[in-house]
Design a protein that fits this description.
The complex is a heterotrimer. In chain A, the strands form two sheets. Chain A has a five-stranded mixed sheet, covered by helices on one side. Chain A has a two-stranded antiparallel sheet with strand order 1-3. By secondary structure, chain A is mostly helical. Chain B has one domain: Rossmann fold, CATH 3.40.50.2300. Chain B is built from five helices and five strands; from the N terminus they run βαβαβαβαβα. Classes of the chains: A mainly alpha, B alpha/beta, C mainly alpha. Chains in contact: A-B, A-C.
């Protein structure tokens, strides 16, 4: 019993440890110190999720049954990584340039951002992966049972199920906590990646430790071990050549097509150069993983009582020899293999299910307005979390239904054959521009059907799902459709039979389907993008003249990407176009960039559909797109330099045009400025003169006299204020101002500003969402307070909401602190946004509010002097100003 | 019957001052503060004289004047224009548009009263 | 008959070497596939135990391939851009 209790304690401690380092990694990443997570070694280790519990425990069992054949499972991926120059490099480049989130997204994106293809690939992946997840749960629970057995308790089926349920719950929690932290699937999940890397080290060390123990501790040395192998039942290596070649191919293909492998290989890749390291380090890893498999198998066969399960030799051998600590270490290795695979597979599958099935359904159920109506981020996150739970639950249910029996052991390779049905569309899509959506659909459906009929359904056993009579005579007596002898070709190994036929028919359907159908324009564009990714890395240019308004797009993007990131994208584009602020011209290029950024969060097809809602006004004709496609091919032939040059010219021209407009505007402004000053000064003077004449006449009653004196007084004050402001502004503009630099906290400044504006009787309620108000500033505090006062009293004056409210938030953007002042009024129209910082630009319908319209101009000058910035922040509902602190 | 003067001005204090002076002199004073609806107001109840500001919300005094002159019933209506933008260009423009009299702010009360009396007599 | 050979102009020798190294990198998986199929062709006699020899052979080839890949990864300068245009990471 002792061992078992210790084991439970160790397992729990290990889980706590994994949570701990994951938290630690997330924390460091958030503090901006994520460099070490982005090393090529971590990348290589994360690839090791290829080695699941099936390979950790099962490889020994496999070797005990079929000798060296287990090596094929590792040789396939080795060859793929050695040949990274061919396929993997291209995949990674495309993955990044198109912001691909999953293998389903890749296929969907390649074939015209097709929703239906995304759904098909997702379904295939889920069907193929669910038994595989069940297998992981089974291996963990069986290993628990081994220790319980050693402690003297025999586990029943109910015990196994209960353990599996707890493991499943733990995995769901971990995956949700660390796998859905960021919405952008393109971003790295630091916590997950680091936990997987640690688990990769643990499982490798565990297997090597058991191997060393077996070779030198039990067998008595290398020579003795080799003799033992020669004397064993597997010494005669009667390897069927077909299976050797076929399985090597299968494993290599699965390495590319498995959703979890795609996740770590492509999606989590941060740097293409990491591939170069992984190209030898990953083969080295799997080589070490497989090094001691045969010795362990042979020694186990020799020592263990006959009939004991060779799949568990890795555990039972050390236990039988009394090496409990080693056994526990080995258990942790198996546990690591299972959990890391489940975590990544679940993240990958949940992203696919969420992006290709749940979100599109949600969007279509909400109608066209949905994109702007709600916070899509929450919906996507929620759907991803639910998908995670559902995927793991599916694995658990499969485990329960299949009874955890031997049927599961074979499922690894069966599942491989299922996922490699994606291969023809994947490779065809990467290298052949003629591949079309219909071709891909045909290939996938045919391949998947053949797999289901010939391998998956029969795997439940003859008579379980397909009746025995069908196996013997075919469905409805159609002899050539027998599941294990298609077209009457019998006596091939069933796995090889299914692999051969499914791949062949899949590829033929894909080819024929592609040749006979005509691709839609967007398919042709995406095709060119994918096939020639190294020549030109621009996305499909699908949006020509767009009717989309920059502000609408910003509102939508904020809902998906979050305000900070969306604003950065818009500001960067505006800067690239040589404009200030957050609203760039909506050019096709920009829409394309934006779409790709959105695709990183919700997948290509969905992003395309969302953008489409805004650009409907301009439906694109086939001719247009074909013209653009041809143009894209031509661009490819020109050098990048030429392209860069013309972009440069265009930018210069735009800047010149802007400068010219500014000059013209300035000279008009100068006149306007003078006449404005004249107007602003004369208006109060008129009142003062007129009323003082009335008072001088001396025939007014006392009440009127008092009233009129009041007006004279107020207008005189107004005149003084105006002169002060003008003076202030001219000092600021001429740079004659002396700054009085002091240190103070943001909190005191805001407090001071708020109390200064309180005097006039508050109708505005102020909400401060300032996470770190104690942020220290080292600047001219009085001037900065002046800016705050101006913004608060502006909100007080102009906010036209029923219950006016001003939200003040401090956040960090790009290493600088910004304070946003956002009210809940009707905001400022787009045309006015451009002029509010100009002098006397008080918007005409607010005349009565007093003030000359110099406030914001002064704010802008102050912020410029202090080395900060103030801008209008569009798309926030009400009027919103962003002050970037110096 | 007292003659009616319509003051179109958006600064409430100035409106009040003019109203006071003219009422004291026996005029019936109506006021209107919005540029956009000024022409409709004039058409609905035509006054004997208009005192018109230039910088008005919605529509400038110049535009109001132009529209007044284009309209049959009001093409001869006396208009006294008051403006705080005292540039020569503004005066020229006002005269071209057919203003009856042009006066810059700040004005003296006596001046305004005199002009109103003179204009309304015609 | 003896032609006077002009001394060959030195033409970017290092970039030429880079291109040939890339060719080797491209050939590596093909070499691997071929070498790993060789044991299938070994003659099989009754009662002879092949597993140990095959094991040693396969692992030997494996290590050789890894060593080659390691050499290539050091020798080839990867000119891949750090990040493609237009999708620089948002900080």
């Amino acid at each position: 019993m002792l061992t078992y209790n210790v084991l439970i304690a160790v397992a729990l401690l290990y889980v706590v440890f994994l949570f701990g380092i994951a938290f630690f990694a997330e924390k460091r990443a958030r503090a901006g110190r994520s460099g070490w997570v982005s090393s090529p070694w971590i990348y290589t280790l994360s690839l090791s999720i290829y080695c699941t519990a099936w390979t950790f425990y099962g490889a020994v069992g496999y070797a005990a049954r079929s000798g060296l054949e287990y090596l094929t499972v590792y040789l396939g991926p080795t060859i793929v990584m050695l040949g990274w120059w061919w396929i993997v490099r291209k995949l990674v480049r495309i993955g990044r340039s198109q912001r691909i989130t999953s293998i389903a997204d890749l296929i969907s994106s390649r074939f015209g951002k097709s929703t239906s293809l995304g759904v098909i690939v997702t379904l295939i992946a889920v069907v193929a992966a669910t038994p595989y997840l069940a297998l992981q749960l089974q291996s963990v629970t069986l290993s628990f049972a081994v220790f319980a057995e050693a402690g003297g308790t025999h586990w029943t089926q109910a015990d196994l199920s209960r353990a599996a349920l707890w493991v499943a719950i733990g995995l769901v929690v971990f995956t949700i906590v660390f796998g859905t932290r960021n919405l952008d699937a393109n971003e790295r999940h630091h916590g997950v990646v680091i936990a997987i890397a640690v688990e990769a080290v643990v499982k490798l060390c565990a297997l090597i430790a058991v191997g060393v123990f077996v070779v030198w501790g039990v067998a008595g040395g290398l020579g003795e071990t080799l003799q033992m192998i020669d004397a064993s039942a597997i010494s005669k290596w009667e390897q069927p050549a077909g299976r050797w070649v076929g399985l090597t191919f299968l494993a290599g293909a699965a390495f590319l097509c498995l959703p979890r492998m795609f996740q770590v290989l492509v999606v989590e890749n941060v740097n293409e150069n990491h591939l170069s390291t992984a190209s030898w380090a990953f083969p080295l890893y799997v080589m070490l993983m497989s090094l001691f498999v045969v010795p362990i198998a042979v020694v186990g066969l020799n020592l263990m009582p006959s009939g004991s399960n060779p799949d568990l030799f890795v555990l039972t051998l050390p236990l039988a020899e009394g090496w409990n600590v080693l056994a526990i270490f080995s258990f942790l290795g198996g546990f690591s293999s299972a959990t890391s695979m489940v975590i990544v597979a679940t993240i990958a599958l949940a992203t696919m299910v969420s992006n290709h099935i749940v979100v599109p359904l949600w969007l279509s159920s909400r109608g066209a307005g949905a994109v702007v109506a709600g916070d899509i981020r929450l919906v996507v996150l929620l759907s991803r979390r639910i998908s995670i739970a559902a995927v793991v639950l599916g694995g658990y249910i499969y485990f329960r239904l299949s009874g955890g029996g031997a049927a599961l052991a074979a499922i690894g390779l069966i599942s491989f054959v299922g996922v490699v049905q994606v291969l023809p569309s994947l490779v065809g899509g990467l290298y052949w521009r003629g591949a079309t959506r219909w071709g891909a659909i045909a290939g996938l459906v045919v391949g998947f059907s053949v797999w289901a009929w010939c391998l998956f359904l029969p795997s439940f056993g003859q008579g379980a799902i397909i009746p025995v009579s069908v196996f013997e005579n075919g469905p409805y007596g159609i002899n050539w459709l027998r599941p294990e002898a298609l077209f009457g070709i019998e006596k091939i190994d069933p796995l090889l039979h299914a692999l051969l036929w499914s791949m062949l028919l899949n590829a033929v359907a894909f080819f024929v389907g592609s040749v006979v159908t005509f691709p839609a324009p967007i398919e042709r564009l995406q095709g060119a993008q994918f096939v020639n990714v190294f020549e030109h890395s621009t996305g499909a240019r699908a949006w020509t003249q767009s009717a989309a308004e920059a502000e609408d797009l910003l509102i939508m993007s904020q809902r998906i990407l979050g305000p900070t990131e969306a604003q950065q994208i818009f500001a960067r584009e505006a800067a690239r176009q040589g404009k200030a602020g957050y609203l760039p011209d909506v050019t096709p290029d920009f829409i394309q960039t934006l779409e790709r950024n959105l695709a990183g969060s919700v997948g290509a097809a969905t992003a395309h559909a969302m953008i489409g809602q805004f650009t409907q006004g301009s439906s694109i004709s086939v001719e247009d797109l074909i013209a653009v496609a041809d143009e894209a091919v031509q661009i490819m032939e020109y050098s990048n330099r030429l392209e860069a040059k013309s972009a440069e010219q265009e930018r210069t021209a735009r800047q010149l045009r802007d400068a010219n407009e500014k000059l013209t505007a300035l000279s008009i402004q100068k006149d306007a400025f003078l006449s404005q000053i004249s107007h602003e000064l004369r208006t109060p003077m008129t009142s003062i003169r007129s009323f003082s004449e009335i008072l001088r006449d001396g025939d007014a009653d006392p009440a009127t006299v008092e009233r009129y004196s009041g007006i004279i007084h107020d207008e005189a004050l107004r005149l003084t204020r105006l002169l002060d402001d003008l003076l202030d502004l001219s000092v600021l503009e001429n740079g004659q101002v002396t700054l009085n630099i002091q240190e103070g906290s943001l909190k005191t400044l805001l407090d001071r500003a708020i109390s200064a504006t309180e005097a006039s009787g508050r109708r505005l309620s102020i909400r401060r969402i300032v996470a770190n108000e104690n942020h220290l500033l080292n600047t001219d505090l009085d001037r900065l307070t002046q800016v705050f006062i101006n913004l608060i009293s502006n909100a007080e004056k102009y906010c036209d909401a029923e219950a006016p409210e001003l939200k003040i938030t401090l956040r960090r953007i790009g290493g600088r602190h910004v304070v946003d002042f956002i009210d809940n009024g009707s905001g400022i129209g787009k045309a006015s946004q451009r002029v509010i910082f100009e002098k006397f630009s008080r918007l005409s319908d607010h005349r009565k509010a007093g003030g000359a319209g110099l406030g914001l101009a002064i704010c802008r000058e102050i912020m410029a002097r202090l080395g900060g910035e103030i801008v209008y922040l569009p798309g926030q509902g009400g009027a919103a100003f962003r002050v970037t602190l110096p | 019957m007292a003659k009616r003067v319509l003051v179109i001005e958006d600064e409430p204090n100035i409106t009040e001052a003019i109203s006071f002076i003219l009422s004291r002199d026996g005029w019936t004073v109506h006021t209107h503060s919005d540029g956009e609806t000024a022409n409709e107001r004039i058409k609905a109840t035509p006054p004997d004289l208009i005192i018109l500001d230039v910088m008005l919300p919605g529509k400038s005094g110049f535009d109001i004047l132009r529209d007044l002159r284009a309209e049959e019933g009001t093409s001869e209506l006396p208009v006294l224009m008051l403006t705080a933008r005292g540039q020569a260009r503004d005066r020229e423009l006002a005269e071209k548009l057919g203003v009856t009299q042009f006066m810059t702010k700040p004005f003296s009360n006596a001046e305004v009263l005199e002009s109103v009396r003179a204009l309304a007599r015609d | 008959m003896a032609l006077k050979l002009k001394p060959l102009q030195f033409l970017a020798r290092s970039s030429y070497r880079q291109r040939r190294l890339r060719d080797v990198a491209g050939m590596l998986p093909i070499i691997g596939i071929l070498l790993l199929q060789v044991p299938l062709l070994w003659p099989r006699a009754e009662g002879q135990s092949l597993t140990t020899s095959a094991m040693i052979y396969v692992f030997g080839v494996w290590i050789l391939l890894i060593a080659l890949a390691l050499y290539l990864s050091k020798a080839i300068r990867n000119d891949a851009p750090e990040l493609g245009e237009g999708q620089e990471d948002v900080d």
